[in-house]
Amino acid sequence: MKQQLEKYRNWQKENPEWELICDMTDIDCLYIQWHELPRAERMSWVGTYRHAAKDAFEEFGIKECKFPCMVIGPDLIIREIKDWPEGFCMTVFKTANQSFNSDAEKGAGDLHVR
Questions:
Q1: How many domains does the chain have?
Q2: Residues 104, 77: one domain?
Q3: Is the domain of 52 the same as that of 5?
Q4: Residues 6+ away with beta carbon under 8 Å from 84
Q5: Which domain holds residue 72?
Q6: Residue in 102, 85, 111 with CA at minimum distance from that of residue 36
Q7: Does residue 21 contact residue 93 with C-beta atoms inside 8 Å?
Q8: What DSSP letter does each residue of 7-73 carry, written as one string?
Q9: Strand-pair category, 90-94 with 18-20
Q10: With the CA atoms of 74, 76, 1 and 13 taken in that order, what torsion angle do they form, in degrees rounded to the nearest 10?
Q11: Quick one: what percent of the chain has pLDDT higher than 70?
């Protein structure tokens, strides 16, 4: 397993726009947060849960990922998540874009990417 992890880290060095999930300490800023919901959607939560709307969203809301998410198989080929190969695989996020960098700079969570 350590050898395969080393292969994934070498792959990531050649593909710096992608981040390995194992190198992220907090992935909250990868997903839509309460303050990023459209007003109408927030109001829908408020209509149902009143003063506990934000907590309800945090507890069981389905949060959409803001970044492309793929998987790398043992053969180091990147694939769609739905085409998950057999063996030790790694989830990767394409985070090398402006919105990720600005979220990280704002301190959205304690995200540390290697």
A1: 2
A2: yes
A3: no
A4: 71
A5: 1-31+66-108
A6: 102
A7: yes
A8: HHHHHHHH-TTEEEGGGBS--GGGB--GGGS-HHHHHHHHHHHGGGHHHHHHHH--PPBSS-EEEE-
A9: antiparallel
A10: -170
A11: 84
* Span 68-91, pLDDT tens digits: 999 999 999 999 999 998 888 999
What one-letter code names the amino acid at 70? M
Q: What is the pTM of this model?
A: 0.69
**Could you say which DSSP state residue 84 is in?**
P
- For residues 9 and 26, membership in a common domain is answered with yes
Least confident range of 16-25, 29-38, 51-60, 91-100: 91-100
How many residues does this entry show for the chain? 114
56's tokens = 């309800």
Task: Select from 114, 87, 83 the least CA-distant residue to 1.
Answer: 87
Residue 90: other Cβ atoms inside 10 A: 23
Distant-in-sequence, close-in-space partners of 96: CB < 8 Å, separation ≥ 6: 16, 17, 18
* Cβ density class 72-83: b for 16+ within 10 Å, e for less: bbeeeeeeeeee
- Rounded to 10 degrees, what is the CA torsion of 36, 41, 45, 47? 140
